[in-house]
TrEMBL record:
InterPro entries: RNase_H-like_EbsB-rel, RNaseH_domain. It comes from the Eukaryota. This is RNase H type-1 domain-containing protein. Residues 47-114 form the RNase H type-1 domain.
């Protein structure tokens, strides 16, 4: 799923974000039926996701968007380590927060699809 999201992101960044509509539906293949919601105008939204497999590797993706849904920054990591799905999501939050801090996005809303 993380690879699919990364592929979708790479395709989307080729589109002029100034003319793209605000995202209202989750990406194709997303497990969530809830649509993406923009943060309040004074905040940034940090979305994170992680995928783990049994070969001691995991993939993490993060994206920061503004209140119009425009992507401000994004990153992916391929890591050679195994964590449980819950631990991987928590680690994705840590990496996402670190990226947001390094890019000077201090007032953020953090969103993950982990229900735990």
């Amino acid at each position: 799923m993380a690879l699919k999201i990364t592929e979708d992101f790479n395709k989307a960044r080729l589109v002029d974000m100034r003319t793209s509509p605000t995202p209202q539906q989750p990406p194709s293949g997303a497990l969530s039926a809830i649509s993406w919601e923009c943060p309040p105008s004074h905040l940034w939204k940090l979305n994170v996701d992680a995928a783990v497999d049994r070969s001691n590797s995991m993939r993490i993706g993060v994206v920061v968007r503004d209140s119009l849904g425009k992507i401000a920054t994004a990153a992916t990591w391929n890591l050679e380590m195994y964590l449980s799905p819950s631990e991987a999501e928590a680690f994705a939050c840590v990496l996402g927060l670190k990226l947001a801090h390094e890019c000077c996005f201090f007032e953020i809303v953090l969103e993950s699809d982990n229900i735990e």
